[in-house]
């Protein structure tokens, strides 16, 4: 066991503010006699054994100051999803692996693979919508014939971007999207030939999946799903951070805030739905999320943070929608954000201890 002050590195492309999530992480690290240093992926100089970044000034509470430090004992990879997809942290992950530095969160397989894992998990207790990879327009046609309404999603998508609701509509095919890339809302009614042309241009060029529509609960004309966030603590065990109901706009396609959705406190939605004779079992949602987490760490030992989108139908049956190893923090309420920041530090210390680094 190496007796030294642990360093938790947080890789980010965002310049830190003096308050907020990173400030809370820094304070939590100090409580455990650890250092927290934020650094850009390009400022990790493995060949020199140092990194440059920002560290909280605990003496004068002046905020984050620029520092140079030895390489961290553990790295929390916190770069935006779209930059990760562009390869922004690939070199960092490779260098960290060469130097034996654990990195969380790991990259997770695409939506088709995770849907299959959860469908095969008997202890998870989730229904999983029929899901197929789209390799041709015929896949969409076949599923439309079977289900009538589909959701088509990019395999590596985020934020509701490029998610289509596709439905048969009196001889035509309706295509709805709340966030059609940079163009905003999209509403089309196409004949079969027009649809095949549209799909070839906007679906087949990058990997997509097709899923049957889930019969979700609705509230004020919008579909409801639940972001359930769990994180691992200093013992490596999962804890619930929070459950946040998300509501799509009336007739909306997705519940994402950036795509026109809204959020509310669980207790508020629960009270409103009780007036309609519906009950939401919060404990069951938590139990389901923790069971999925246990299943996933058998595949990804360093998985420390998961955000699920789960749905409930009118019978109270939970459905799996998708999984996100980088759930958006802005969706969480302040008390949940504080817990998330504390647990991110705690799990980092768990990994550092596993590696053999012990603070004073």
TrEMBL record:
UniProt cross-references to InterPro entries, sorted A to Z: YheC/D
Domain of life (superkingdom): Bacteria
Pfam families: ATPgrasp_YheCD
Protein name: Endospore coat-associated protein YheD
Gene: yheD_2
């Amino acid at each position: 066991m190496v007796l030294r002050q642990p360093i938790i590195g947080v890789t980010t492309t965002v310049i830190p503010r003096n308050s907020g999530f990173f400030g809370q992480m820094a304070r939590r690290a100090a409580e455990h006699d650890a250092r927290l240093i934020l650094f850009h992926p390009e400022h990790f100089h493995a060949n020199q054994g140092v990194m440059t970044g920002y560290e909280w000034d605990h003496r004068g509470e002046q905020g984050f100051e620029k520092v140079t430090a030895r390489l961290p004992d553990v790295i929390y990879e916190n770069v935006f999803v779209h930059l990760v997809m562009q390869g922004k942290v690939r070199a960092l992950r490779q260098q960290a692996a060469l130097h034996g530095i654990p990195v969380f969160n790991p990259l997770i397989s695409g939506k088709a693979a995770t849907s299959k894992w959860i469908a095969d998990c008997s202890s998870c207790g989730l229904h999983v919508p029929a899901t197929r990879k789209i390799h041709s327009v015929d896949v969409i046609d076949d599923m439309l014939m079977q289900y009538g309404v589909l959701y088509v999603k990019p395999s590596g998508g985020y934020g509701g971007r490029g998610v289509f609701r596709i439905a048969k509509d009196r001889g035509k095919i309706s295509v709805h999207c709340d966030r059609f890339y940079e163009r905003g809302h999209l509403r089309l009614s196409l004949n079969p030939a027009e649809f095949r042309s549209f799909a070839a241009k906007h679906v087949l060029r990058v990997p997509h999946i097709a899923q049957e529509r889930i019969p979700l609960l609705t509230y004020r004309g919008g579909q409801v799903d639940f972001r359930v966030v769990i994180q691992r603590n200093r013992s490596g065990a999962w804890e619930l951070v929070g459950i946040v109901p998300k509501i799509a706009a009336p007739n909306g396609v997705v519940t994402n805030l950036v795509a026109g959705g809204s959020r509310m406190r669980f207790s508020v939605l629960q009270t409103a739905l009780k007036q309609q004779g519906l009950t939401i079992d919060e404990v069951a949602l938590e139990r389901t999320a923790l069971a999925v987490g246990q299943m996933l760490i058998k595949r990804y030992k360093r998985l420390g943070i998961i955000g699920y989108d789960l749905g409930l139908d009118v019978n109270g049956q939970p459905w799996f929608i998708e999984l996100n190893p980088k759930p958006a923090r802005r969706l969480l309420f302040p008390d949940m954000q504080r817990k998330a920041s504390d647990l991110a530090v705690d799990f980092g210390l768990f990994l550092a201890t596993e590696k053999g680094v012990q603070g004073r």
